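Appendix C: a fully annotated inverse folding record. The material below is reproduced so that readers can follow the format used throughout the book. The structure is listed first as tokens, followed by the designed sequence.
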């Protein structure tokens, strides 16, 4: 991010002279507003720390918002500068998060709804005396409760929890609860693929397949069970596997 430099106004004369032109009263007021409220901007930036964006960047964004507010402030409008500057600074910070801070980017309407929720939560808290429920927020903003729930649930999309984050009593981490490839899925898929081909075998051939691939018996043990020699069992298995390959288009397990 480009640094926002807070410096007093200095204007060069139109003649090209390097001497600074006199500073107007408006410029002096703007400079005073900025310099007086620097800590306010920095403290607002700190409220958004630990959300995945460096604090220095947040401070620069807050100072940019402060500068914009100071330039736009009309002292004759009848309101205090802070009441004008705080929403401007907050808007710059939230806009920065909206555009640059998402690790996982939800739909734009949900992002915008989350920003609207953030603007009314304090008001609803003061009105109801407790943290507003999703139904309270939905009624106030005239939106669906489901959308409010979705918007509230994406709060962690700025900084997903690290896999090393302790959970429970602290003896386990989040990574310990991640799923892993389940070999049973492969076995189930193979069974579904093989079932039509095996169904076409004779009862004796199906028994040989069962003894070989389910009970994992040796060819000699299979021969004793079905009344064949070991050599005959070998030939029968080769024929069965060829038949299965023909049915499956060349995809079958080998003995």
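Designed amino acids, in order:
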């Amino acid at each position: 991010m480009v640094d926002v430099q807070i410096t007093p106004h200095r204007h060069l004369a139109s003649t090209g002279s390097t001497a600074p032109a006199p500073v107007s009263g408006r410029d002096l007021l703007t400079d005073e507003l900025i310099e007086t409220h620097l800590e306010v901007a920095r403290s607002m930036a700190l409220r958004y720390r630990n959300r995945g964006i460096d604090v220095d960047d947040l401070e620069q964004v807050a100072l940019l918002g402060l500068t914009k507010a100071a330039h736009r402030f009309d002292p004759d409008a009848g309101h205090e500068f802070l009441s004008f500057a705080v929403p401007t600074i907050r808007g710059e910070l939230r806009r920065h998060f909206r555009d640059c801070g998402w690790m996982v980017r939800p739909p734009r309407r949900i992002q915008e709804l989350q920003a609207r929720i953030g603007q009314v939560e304090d008001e609803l808290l003061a009105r109801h005396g407790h943290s507003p429920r999703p139904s309270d927020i939905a009624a106030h903003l005239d939106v669906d409760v489901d959308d409010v729930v979705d918007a509230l649930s994406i709060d962690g999309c700025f900084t997903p929890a690290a896999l090393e984050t302790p959970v429970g009593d602290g003896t386990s981490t989040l990574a310990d609860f991640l799923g892993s490839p389940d070999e049973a899925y492969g076995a189930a898929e193979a069974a579904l693929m093989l079932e039509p081909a095996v169904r076409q075998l004779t009862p004796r051939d199906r028994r040989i397949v069962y003894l070989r691939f389910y009970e994992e018996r040796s060819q000699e043990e299979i021969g004793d069970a079905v009344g064949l020699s070991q050599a005959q069992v070998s030939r029968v298995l080769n024929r069965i596997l060829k038949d299965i390959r023909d049915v499956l288009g060349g995809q079958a397990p080998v003995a």
